[in-house]
């Protein structure tokens, strides 16, 4: 008996589709209306996603984010200091447009400035955990923190140009994870401004 994949019921197809990568899952939507409905159901299950150069097709990021961005709760972005700023902005633009319901945001190896921060400010309002380890920061980080209305945990390892005054806008901050050799003035600031802040190494 010859069988076609379309002979399988929806549950079987949904299981098969669950093994597809994000690109194949989006592509299979074009096969037929039934495949589109099943693929869309699988796409809504994406709650966590990683954007990493070398592992992501930047040219398709807009398409990917249009499907999974609104449902994402945990997003990791690893850029790389050698990546051209124009390409970095090309990555952040669709993320800032679609990923507005994040609870956890991880950003590594980013050389941050005002233009990049403008995109990031659009997605941090509901973030409760922010990891900006191993980034090169400038004063624009203050503008980013000012938009973090619900931030409770800040992870700040191996990043340059960290100043304790950067924390002044983080009224709800409960946990700060820093390097062991961090500036001891953090503890003075903690005692004076946020005694409930837990500093971890």
Automatic annotation (TrEMBL):
Residues 2-49 form the F-box domain. InterPro entries: F-box-like_dom_sf, F-box_dom, LRR_dom_sf. Coiled coil: none annotated. This is F-box domain-containing protein.
């Amino acid at each position: 008996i010859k069988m076609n994949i379309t002979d399988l019921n929806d549950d079987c197809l949904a299981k098969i589709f669950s093994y597809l990568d994000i690109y194949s899952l989006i592509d299979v939507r074009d096969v037929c209306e039934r495949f589109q409905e099943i693929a869309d159901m699988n796409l809504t299950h994406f709650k966590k996603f990683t954007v990493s150069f070398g592992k992501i097709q930047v040219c398709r990021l807009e398409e990917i984010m249009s499907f999974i961005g609104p449902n994402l709760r945990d997003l990791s972005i690893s850029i790389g200091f050698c990546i051209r700023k124009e390409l970095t902005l090309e990555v952040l633009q669709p993320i800032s447009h679609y990923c507005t319901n994040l609870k956890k945001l991880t950003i590594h190896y980013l050389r941050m400035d005002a233009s990049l921060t403008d995109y990031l400010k659009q997605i941090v309002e509901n973030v409760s955990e922010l990891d900006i380890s191993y980034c090169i920061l400038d004063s624009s980080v203050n503008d980013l923190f000012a938009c973090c209305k619900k931030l409770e945990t800040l992870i700040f390892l191996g990043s340059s140009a960290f100043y304790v005054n950067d924390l002044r806008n983080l009224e709800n901050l409960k946990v700060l994870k820093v390097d062991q050799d961090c500036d001891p003035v953090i503890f003075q600031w903690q005692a004076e401004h946020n005694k409930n802040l837990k500093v971890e190494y």
